[in-house]
Design a protein that fits this description.
heterodimer; A: alpha/beta; Rossmann fold; 11 helices; globular; B: 331 residues; MetI-like fold; MetI-like (chain B); transport (chain B); cell membrane (chain B); BP-dependent_transpt_permease (chain B); ABC transporter permease (chain B)
Chain lengths: 282, 331
């Protein structure tokens, strides 16, 4: 299974190649021997239980690890080595080549900065545009994520959770980055909003021709968004391959347990809603 | 376009903040007192009831009369004229000290937050040690080589209050430095200086406002104290501290002459502190409903749309885009 995936993606140019990445913080190993490939225009998932190192991996791609963390190995982004790159090169890459969407939209937006200025920030940092051109792009981006132009002047606390996440997506995509990392972008949202946001994200990523690294702990979300996926546990990649294959025939016991718990949870939910309907009928 | 808009918002927001301050008793009091202070300072540049250098040796320590509204001092000079002229010196000291405090305090704070510098690790101890130095001592040290002057007051107070500002704002600034939006800004390619100015400073504004207004009040007191000790403004330069210092030895015989500058200093310090308090509440878009609604409504007016999760119709959006671009190119 994994060999076929490699053979398939090997023919395409790689957006991101990680080889033997080790990250340690104060002597503790956080990631060990992580290798991962994302082809151009591919949507790749990264799944694992809480604390398995998913977010650490996404942060190490952007070199946003905690102060005392040490990374060894190789992270190549469009054939550019990021491990050991200078601060200037990294700042140049962040937000321009790679856009990042975080888990909790309420905390990723500056509470005293208007939405329009927040979305304009990556443009301001990376492109020297005239003010009216920048505003036009920000406004167009805001409309593309399904928000009216009036929200340019709103503060984040005036928006709902779903609207805030749309703003966060607009901020990450406004510079048209070629790789987008979404770190559990829908965990803080209800299931209807979750579905809307996921569809929006997939649409925008496909339209832009960008690659997507989608981090989640939810198998349903994973199947909805990605075509191939990696499973992480205790800082290691334990399984990878086609998403539907991994979900249908998990080869490692950890993946099986994750899938099983997800199934049980789904069953419990269905059971609960059925008994609730029964109560209502009585 | 953006510049025009933000200027319009700034005017509008300032109006709303002042109005909400005016609606509160303590805000109205502080605005009135500070307004009169600024007005008198401006007037005193062009006109005082008597010339500052006019003295009448035959009418010293006069009680208030129609001729001299607040009486005369030990040289027979008009007390009101000296107090009026003093108000501009004190205003200058106040404004400059606040500016020095803000700049020095924020620079220190930035150095304290900078990751992996030796200063950031020892800064708290260093600053705690420096805070224990009284402002008077710093002023005395400065006055030895430079002599007493307005600059000594500003430098000594700006240094002392700047330390205080950095120390008090540090915990909150650290919290913000670890917040999700700073991480998001970094992931968008922001540099440390940009993060500090765009994200950390605007979010610690409430603390800064209160601290700076307290500094403004304290420096008015400090000026009179330092001038009394002879290390403040030079003799012959009008200031409230000067008026106080020249008459305070006669407090038992002519208490009224001391009362006026004392009363003014008390009023000003009180209103500066109250002003900081009310300003913090009224200028915060999260707590002042009027302010945030007005800003939000102005956005709605501009685009003629209501808040909703829906995309506007294509035509309306194009119209609006056109309008925005035309306005922008007109700039």
């Amino acid at each position: 299974m994994s060999t076929s995936l490699n053979a398939h993606s090997g023919s395409l140019a790689k957006a991101l190649t990680i080889r033997d990445l080790d990250v340690t913080i104060a002597g503790h190993s956080i990631l060990s021997q992580v290798s991962l490939d994302i082809g151009t225009r591919a949507r790749v998932g990264l799944i694992g239980a809480s604390g398995s190192g998913k977010s650490m991996l996404s942060r190490s791609i952007l070199s946003l690890l905690p102060a005392h963390a040490q990374a060894a190995g190789s992270i190549r982004l469009f054939n550019k080595e990021l491990v050991g790159a200078s601060d200037r090169e990294l700042a140049e890459m962040r937000g321009r080549t790679v856009g990042m969407i975080f888990q909790n939209p309420a905390s990723t937006l500056n509470p005293v900065m208007k939405v329009g200025r927040q979305i304009a920030l990556p443009l301001r940092l990376h492109y020297n545009l005239p003010a009216d051109e920048r505003l036009r792009r920000v406004e167009a981006m805001l409309n593309r994520v399904g928000l009216p132009s009036s929200m340019l002047d709103a503060y984040p606390h005036q928006l709902s959770g779903g609207q805030q996440q749309r703003v966060a997506i607009a901020t990450a995509l406004v510079t048209s980055p070629r790789l987008i990392i979404a770190d559990e972008p829908t965990t803080a949202l209800d299931s209807i909003t979750q579905l809307h946001i996921l569809d929006l994200l997939v649409d925008l990523v496909d339209q832009a021709g960008a690659s997507l690294l989608f981090i989640t702990h939810d198998f349903g979300v994973l199947a909805h968004v990605t075509s191939s996926c990696y499973v992480m546990d205790h800082g290691r990649i334990i399984e990878h391959g086609n998403t539907s294959n991994v979900l249908a025939k998990p080869s490692s016991p950890v993946t099986r347990r994750l899938a099983q718990s997800a199934e049980e949870l789904k069953f419990d939910n269905a059971h609960a809603s059925l008994s609730q309907e029964g109560d209502n009928n009585d | 376009m953006i510049a025009m808009n933000s200027r319009r918002y700034a005017f509008r927001a300032t109006g709303i903040v002042l109005r909400s301050m005016w609606h509160r008793a303590e805000g109205r009091f502080s605005l009135l007192v500070l307004g009169v202070w600024i007005l008198v300072s401006l007037v005193s540049v062009f006109w005082t009831p008597w010339s500052l250098w006019w003295t009448d040796g035959y009418h010293v320590w006069q009680k208030p009369s129609m001729r001299h509204l607040l009486g005369t001092d030990g040289t027979g000079a008009d007390v009101l004229s000296w107090l009026m002229a003093g108000s501009r010196t004190n205003l200058l000291i106040c404004v400059l000290t606040v500016a020095v405090t803000a700049i020095f305090g924020l620079l220190l704070l930035a150095a304290m937050l900078a990751r992996a510098t030796i200063f950031a690790q020892i800064s708290v101890v260093v600053i705690d040690a420096l805070i224990s130095l009284p402002t008077v001592l710093i002023a005395l040290i400065l006055a030895v080589p430079f002599g007493p002057s307005v600059a000594v007051i500003i430098a000594a107070c700006g240094f002392g209050y700047g330390l205080n500002l950095a120390r008090i704002a540090r915990p909150q600034a650290l919290l913000i430095a670890r917040s999700g939006y700073v991480e998001s800004a970094l992931s968008n390619g922001a540099r440390a200086s940009g993060v500090f100015l765009r994200h950390i400073v605007p979010n610690i504004m409430p603390v800064l406002t209160v601290q700076l207004s307290i500094s403004a009040g304290t420096v008015v007191l400090a000026e009179s104290g330092l001038t009394y000790l002879g290390i403040g403004v030079q003799s012959g330069v009008p200031s409230w501290g000067h008026s106080l210092a020249t008459s305070v030895s006669f407090i038992n015989i002519y208490p009224l002459t001391v009362l006026w500058p004392g009363l003014i200093i008390t009023c000003i310090v009180l209103s500066l502190n109250l002003c900081g308090d009310t300003l913090r509440d009224c200028a915060d878009p999260l707590s002042n409903v009027q302010l945030r609604n007005a800003q939000f409504n102005s956005g709605q007016e501009r685009s003629g749309q209501v808040r909703s999760g829906q995309v506007s119709s294509g035509q309306a959006r194009n119209d609006q885009l056109n309008r925005v671009t035309t306005k922008g190119s007109g700039q």
